[in-house]
Amino acid sequence: MALSRLSLRSNPFLKPSTTSIRRHVSTDTTPITIETAVPFESHLCDAPSRSVVTSSSEILSFFRDMARMRRTEIAADSLYKAKMIRGFCHLYDGQEALAVGMEAAITKKDAIITSYRDHCTFLGRGGELVEAFSELMGRKRGCSNGKGGSMHFYKKDACFYGGHGIVGAQIPLGCGLAFAQKYSKEEFVTFALYGDGAANQGQLFEALNIAALWDLPAILVCENNHYGMGTATWRSAKSPAYFKRGDYVPGLKVDGMDALAVKQACKFAKEHALKNGPIVLEMDTYRYHGHSMSDPGSTYRTRDEVSGVRQVRDPIERVRKLLLSYDIATEKELKDMEKEVRKEVDDAVAQAKESPVPEPSELFTNMYVKDCGVESFGADRKELKVTLT
Amino acid sequence: MSAIIHGAGAATALSTFNFKTLVAPCRTNIPGRSKRCIVAAGSDDDASKSFGSSILTVRHSQKLIANAVATKADMSATTGTGHELLLFEALQEGLEEEMDRDPHVCVMGEDVGHYGGSYKVTKGLADKFGDLRVLDTPICENAFTGMGIGAAMTGLRPVIEGMNMGFLLLAFNQISNNCGMLHYTSGGQFTIPVVIRGPGGVGRQLGAEHSQRLESYFQSIPGIQMVACSTPYNAKGLMKAAIRSENPVILFEHVLLYNLKEKIPDEEYICNLEEAEMVRPGEHITILTYSRMRYHVMQAAKTLVNKGYDPEVIDIRSLKPFDLYTIGNSVKKTHRVLIVEECMRTGGIGASLTAAINENFHDYLDAPVMCLSSQDVPTPYAGTLEEWTVVQPAQIVTAVEQLCQ
Predict the structure, then answer these.
(1) Which of A292, A320, A359, B285 is geometrically suited to a Cys-Cys bond with B336, CB 3.0 to 4.6 A?
(2) What DSSP element (H or E) covers A129?
(3) Which among B2, B10, B247 is the nearest to A381, CB-wise?
(4) What letter would DSSP give residue A161?
(5) What was the ipTM of the complex prediction?
């Protein structure tokens, strides 16, 4: 299958290690060092090195995972327009590098908690596509049995704590998770993700104060996509340097569209948090869709801006260029991979469409733990009756 | 616990009223059972974290005493020596025993550690268990309540103290959306075994903002349980039960009841979270009350007994869900109900209870349910005015006389 290729793509900011490259097999794990395009900016700490150690299999997995996430969000978009997904649907396309980069730096025992823009984070934590789509469509097969919806994805066995609708409320929860990790004396950390809009919430500073005071292994990650729904950061924040807002807590600003930079930063942050307590990461990222499906995303920013970012900074294109220039894969192979991913997603959607809706009795389950065998009536006394066990 | 069964009629049961279909908080479904307090056999290795299981053996049997005071003397008689302590000490004892028993239990709140707690409920615990288990938080109710809930998602069992229940309004979002709902929206993946406790109610001229009754605000939140303690005995029992429960429980204490003295058993015991307490059995009228109003009711009961009435006083204890079993039995017996509460008239616990009783026991009532509540005003500072915002014993006597005509 592999033909060794001797041509190199020239790329201004990439420096391949040798001039004549044999084809890297996709499962190759020999380390490659790549330098990030944008330097880190730091606050009260030393920035990590710009050289990221990775491997071809890792970069290939980035590509595949990001392609899957991108296709998931696009599929969710069409499902929403077809009215199969209702309510609120917040899409993550454009920000995929954050999810994959973070996963590459941590283990499944480190906790992640995020806001309502959680589909891709869920997938990154090992969530299945079928579970995601079923939950979006309110089916029993969903990760929260169809009772949570788009904003309430959870995966306990992968330490993914959701999925929260109220802006900023997940940050104290995240510090609580970090507290529990410290309490149990396990060497794991918690990543609490929030947006530039939530960065103005008081509870963030409250939680940060406690985390710094008690030396909790909490990493607060601001996904700065520059718009809090319709309000740009320059209109909502006096100090848009979110990584500096921790004041006494160190911070790092990262190019959030570069999966390798994200990986490096998260690795650095994990080490820091285990030794020195909390740290704030600001990920400079961008979302192509509007805030949610009800927001066209064009009233507060120009289409040129969106397409400009898509052309210059798109995370998947960046990784594609890496793969091509390092000769880890050919164009055709990448296209095939994308086709496979598309098929995967389409299959999952079809499967989710077939899966059943929750039983009426599910209305009353999981209200309390061990409800002690009591009968409970619903709105219609005769119809919805369940014994809570 | 379960939702209140509304319209238990559903056209079926009223004539053949079967109490077994009502909310049955106690495992033993004995009609007219009188066992109230469940004494734990004291085994610490009990893996069962869920309080609702019937592993606990019932030891206390209640003798009915026709005097107008709580059956304190009775308890110490059956269980031997017992020891006397104040309500806040009882809470502390319960908390300490649970922290000894389970290393997952921790306490967080303002000034709970080194200071010993503003009402001394956590006194001495920081010295015994260390700073990691008794945590002094900065003043940020929203954040530390959220932190407690986040920690609970992983399996810890925090006891979150609000220095005054009124301050927990700042944490309402965390309590409502995260504490109450996470078990449901995660499809059962996460349990939130927190206890949120603190003193509330009208004190002695504390002013409007420090005299709030939050049980009325929290009662609609799905997924939580609410209990109110009123004696040292049930304070300790409810504290222990709340900590052991897998569900989030809000334990309402009252600022003025912390110095109540009572003799409580030496051996370990727990009170059922969903059960009401029969304070004084009677025949003529059922008086439902909780927390501090219990004492106003008992004071009024003395006067009523002298006047020849025989009120049945029930301390409902469980504010969510209501113990409709005990209440129903009582209504069937007396046919008249008076609710005496400290909540506001509008939207208080009494309002919900009135609705529940009317829906479920309408045919058993000889008179409309009367509810005495506090006035719908912010609690004034002036002593005389404050006295008139809450229900006084004289008003209770008048109401009973009116109902029993």
Answers:
(1) B285
(2) helix A129-136
(3) B10
(4) -
(5) 0.81
Could you tell me which residues come within 8 angstroms of residue B86 by beta carbon, excluding any fewer than 6 positions away?
B232, B258, B259, B260, B261
**pTM score of the predicted model:** 0.81
Structure tokens at A383: 């119809």
Give the whole-number percent of chain A exceeding pLDDT 70: 88
Indicate the pLDDT class of residue A385, thresholds 50, 70 and 90. Answer: low
Mutation site, A173, A193, A359, interface B, largest B CB count within 10 A: A173
What SS3 state is found at B54? coil
Residues of B in contact with A370 (CB under 8 A): 50, 52-53, 246
Cis before A163? omega within 30: yes
State mean pLDDT over A299-303: 92
Residue B87 CB partners (closer than 8 Å, separation 6+): B229, B231, B232, B235, B253, B257, B258, B259, B260, B261, B262
Q: What is the mean pLDDT of chain B?
A: 82
Burial (CB count within 10 angstroms: exposed 0-12, middle 13-18, buried 19+), residue A351: middle
Those residues with Cβ within 8 angstroms of residue B238's Cβ, 6 or more apart along the chain or in another chain? B227, B229, B251, B271, B273, B317
Cβ contact B317:B332 at 8 Å: no
- Looking at the domain covering A31-296+306-358, what would its CATH class be? alpha beta
- List where CATH 3.40.50.970 sits in chain A: 31-296+306-358
Enumerate residues 165 to 184 of chain B having a beta carbon within 8 A of any beta carbon in chain A: 173-174, 177-178, 182-184
Q: Which positions ≥6 away from A279 have C-beta within 8 Å?
A: A45, A219, A220, A246, A249, A250, A251, A252, A269, A272, A273
A27: phi then psi, degrees, rounded to nearest 5: -95, 15
Report how far residue A319's alpha carbon sits from residue A32's, in angstroms, rounded to the nearest whole number.
14
Q: Which fold has domain B277-404?
A: Rossmann fold (3.40.50)
Check if A111 contacts B (Cβ < 8 Å). yes
SS3 of residue A268 by DSSP: helix
Residue B26 pLDDT greater than 80, yes or no = no
Q: Which of helix, strand or coil describes residue A52?
A: strand
H/E stretch holding A377: strand A374-377
Helices (H), A145-281: 170-183, 202-213, 233-236, 259-276
Is B23:B5 a contact under the CB 8 Å cutoff? yes
Q: Which CATH number fits domain B82-265: 2.60.120.620, 3.40.50.720, 3.40.50.1240, 3.40.50.970?
A: 3.40.50.970
Task: Provide Rg for chain A, Cα atoms.
Answer: 22
Instruction: Please tell me the predicted confidence (pLDDT) of residue A387.
Output: 56
Specify the pLDDT at position A375.
54
Alpha-carbon torsion angle B98, B103, B105, B111, nearest 10? 100
Cβ atoms of A299 and A291 within 8 Å: the answer is no
All structural domains of chain B with their residue ranges: 82-265, 277-404
- CA-based nearest residue in chain A for residue B224: A368
Two domains, one topology: B82-265 and B277-404: yes
